[in-house]
């Protein structure tokens, strides 16, 4: 499967604006890119790149005052197979996790933990004991949460209607036809 991924973001700034953006495909998928997903800006500005602690490519730049656009465009090859799932994986209690794993539990603008914790506390999976990840994720998706494609920079995930259908998490993605072998 060939998937066209990318975005274009347009801003109107009243003054110069330092920015750090993470708009590129994760480095683990770079061998699957048919064309690189270089960050392009209008007007052109110097861009400094670095990797964050999760391996994401971050781009640091200073946008000028006025209209400024930035974006990426790439084609990713993917076999279209689901990720492997270990249905027998254990879910550990937070207090039993190694300290170096805790940063993966921090909230984000896509999932406001302070506003969702009350709703999640009311959810009880069919099985007793701790809350298993898979049924919890299904419940959250059913409530209209965890859909990054429906979140904007001006709207948090909890501002999206919890009854609306969940969209795909890859924003601006298009599945392209396979190229012929000729």
Strand coverage percent = 25-35%
Helix share bin: 10-25%
Overall shape: extended
Strand and helix order: EEEEEEEHHE
Q: What is the radius of gyration computed over CA atoms, rounded to a whole number of angstroms?
A: 20 Å
Query: How many DSSP H or I helices?
Result: 2
How many domains make up the coordinates?
Answer: 2
Question: Can you summarize the main beta sheet?
Answer: 5 strands, antiparallel
Number of strands: 8
Secondary-structure class? mainly beta
Q: Averaged pLDDT, please?
A: 74
Poorly predicted ranges (pLDDT <50, ≥5 residues)? 146-158, 160-175
Distance between the termini: 17 Å
Task: Characterize the structure shown.
With 182 residues, this protein is mainly beta. The protein has two domains: 2-77, no CATH class; 94-169, no CATH class. The protein contains two helices and eight strands. It has helices spanning 113-121, 133-142, and strands at residues 2-13, 17-21, 33-35, 40-42, 48-51, 57-63, 66-77, 174-176. The strands form two sheets. Strands 1, 3, 4, 7 and 8 form a five-stranded antiparallel β-sheet that branches. It has a three-stranded antiparallel β-sheet with strand order 2-6-5, with no helix packed on it. Strand 5 and strand 6 form a beta hairpin.
């Amino acid at each position: 499967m060939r998937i066209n991924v990318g975005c274009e973001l347009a801003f109107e700034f009243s003054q110069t604006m330092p920015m750090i953006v993470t708009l590129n495909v994760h480095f683990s998928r770079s061998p699957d890119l048919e064309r690189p997903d270089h960050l392009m800006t209008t007007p052109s500005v110097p861009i400094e790149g670095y990797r964050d602690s999760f391996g994401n490519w971050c781009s640091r730049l200073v946008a000028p005052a006025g209209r400024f656009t930035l974006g990426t465009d790439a084609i990713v090859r993917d076999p279209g197979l689901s990720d492997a799932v270990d249905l027998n994986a254990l879910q550990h209690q937070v207090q039993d996790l190694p300290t170096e794993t805790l940063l993966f539990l921090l909230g984000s603008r896509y999932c406001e933990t302070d506003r969702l914790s009350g709703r999640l506390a009311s959810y009880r999976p069919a099985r007793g004991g701790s809350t298993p990840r898979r049924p919890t994720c299904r419940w959250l998706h059913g409530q209209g949460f965890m859909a990054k494609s429906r979140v904007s920079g001006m709207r948090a995930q909890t501002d999206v209607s919890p009854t609306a259908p969940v969209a795909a998490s890859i924003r601006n993605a298009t599945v392209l036809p396979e190229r012929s072998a000729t």
